[in-house]
Amino acid sequence: MGVVVPLEEGKKRGGARIEPLVALVQADMERVNELILSKAGSDVSMIPEVANHLISSGGKRLRPMLTLAAARMSGYRGEGHVKLAASVEFMHTATLLHDDVVDESDMRRGKPAARKVWGNQASVLVGDFLLGQAFKMMVDVGSLDALDVLATAASVIAEGEVMQLAAAKSMTTTEDEYLAVIRAKTAALFSAAAEVGPIVAGKGRSERAAFRSYGTNLGLAFQLVDDALDYGGSSADLGKNVGDDFREGKITLPVVLSYRRGSDADRAFWQRALERGEIGEGDLEQAIGMMRTHRAIEDTIERARHFGAVARDALAPFPDDGFKAALLEVVDFCIERAH
Amino acid sequence: MGVVVPLEEGKKRGGARIEPLVALVQADMERVNELILSKAGSDVSMIPEVANHLISSGGKRLRPMLTLAAARMSGYRGEGHVKLAASVEFMHTATLLHDDVVDESDMRRGKPAARKVWGNQASVLVGDFLLGQAFKMMVDVGSLDALDVLATAASVIAEGEVMQLAAAKSMTTTEDEYLAVIRAKTAALFSAAAEVGPIVAGKGRSERAAFRSYGTNLGLAFQLVDDALDYGGSSADLGKNVGDDFREGKITLPVVLSYRRGSDADRAFWQRALERGEIGEGDLEQAIGMMRTHRAIEDTIERARHFGAVARDALAPFPDDGFKAALLEVVDFCIERAH
């Protein structure tokens, strides 16, 4: 079920890796991980249980790595970036806990979702707890600018969720409307994670704008490739199964394109399956078949490639060093996951 | 100085034309043109002189054609679309008059700018007059939704101009920041022009969203190609000369990409030429040479192609008829101008 993606001219296929970034921030990241474990602690034993269920489930921790790398690239020598990175990961974890409740998801990163083990109420409240802990760590760092950027991201993310609730189940969603949703739901946190790096390092407008742009466009590319993989990856890559989005009735870009490009019969299929949630045997295969016919997965990845190119240019002015090379490779890595 | 652009797979080169759209809306457009002439009239003789200088200078009137075509595609049979189309063109004309004052431009569409003939004050005030006339025509049509969309566009355009004033002359502008400017300055009016078509026809949310998305993305593609042509077209195509943006110190996407991808020496060049306005003999050629080195013009067109693809998908759900085919061809026409 792999998706064949045309290669960019002169680019080697499948060569991009996340490991150079992991290696560069490893020392800092170990302290982020310790902080995450300690700040998820509570005398209320259910809190660390629920939090650690997700925290220890093997996410790549891409977002906090962005914060660490951006701070280091900005010449930062202090300690604040570790707390900001942990805050970013907590914001992400809180979002996942709440998302699974809203989407009624059963699985997350290849394990039962927290809400399936401890229930919806615990998932909502532990998410709130982590968000509170995230803000406490930000306040500890003492940068009002960083607090502003992350608090804004928190409300934009929530706004994006509500936008999606409102747009959800409407097959007439346009690509622009869907992009507005993922710009808020996914890209806003990538953007904030990257921007707080130069902020904590005391850098000015242009460095902040460059990292914000890098984060935003990487986030968009990342989410679009995720959307594509959901109709053509293997569950090992994703920590979820092919077709999860389909079964949950999520309207993502491959669906938007297939619907808009489809025949009347195609559209009736999508309305039945995603708007009314009537999904039967063989429907996922039919959905994937329609996507193939309309090149919806390829073009979703093509759109991701556009945002990846913008992300790369955002970092172009920085001196060529290991951090920059690693962050550029992350862009390619996010897109090449589609292979 | 032509730019060589890689072709999209399976697309014939240079085949796209604007004429099918022109032919389809011709009867309506004649009435728009009459209305434009009559509403630009005034007992204050300077008003029609200034207005007609620009009105009769051979613009393509793409925006009002979008309104007409979108209304017809939405099954509209009334008269309101003619007034809305004239309003859209007046809004555009007013913007051009004001722009030339703000940018201190000498030429517009191959003729001296109105401000060079009648002065800045007359240009500002006649722009205001046309904007007032535009709103009067919209009120005549009586659709509050159309008024809302066009009034919002008017303030977004002004916001975009101010944004550009603030961002102008800063070489550290990111691609995202530049896109935000042209989204407001150019794409907002394309978007409103297209959206009022389904509105006046009484169509619902999804048709409005589709035309809005088509207009927005066509506008973005159009502006980016314009930006590219300014560094590589012939003045016959543009009604302005190659290098106008450069001489006026405008920071457009080809410049943003060249600057960000450039060496320290390149950046010093751009800062001198565009931030400080110190432009000497041979500087335009050097600027174009740097753009070639960094593939800045090709990639600007590549970005335009992305937005063009989104515009095409916005219209995909509509039945295949002459109007849809003509509007899709306009997307390709806007991009193929780059040849």
From TrEMBL, chains A, B:
GO biological process, any: isoprenoid biosynthetic process
CDD domains: Trans_IPPS_HT
One GO molecular-function entry: metal ion binding
E.C. number: 2.5.1.90
Tree of life domain: Bacteria
Alphabetic keyword roster: Magnesium, Metal-binding, Transferase
Enzyme class: transferase
Catalytic activity: 5 isopentenyl diphosphate + (2E,6E)-farnesyl diphosphate = all-trans-octaprenyl diphosphate + 5 diphosphate
Cofactor dependence: Mg(2+)
Family from the record: Belongs to the FPP/GGPP synthase family.
Biological role stated in the UniProt entry: Supplies octaprenyl diphosphate, the precursor for the side chain of the isoprenoid quinones ubiquinone and menaquinone.
Protein name according to UniProt: Octaprenyl diphosphate synthase
Species of the source: Prosthecomicrobium pneumaticum
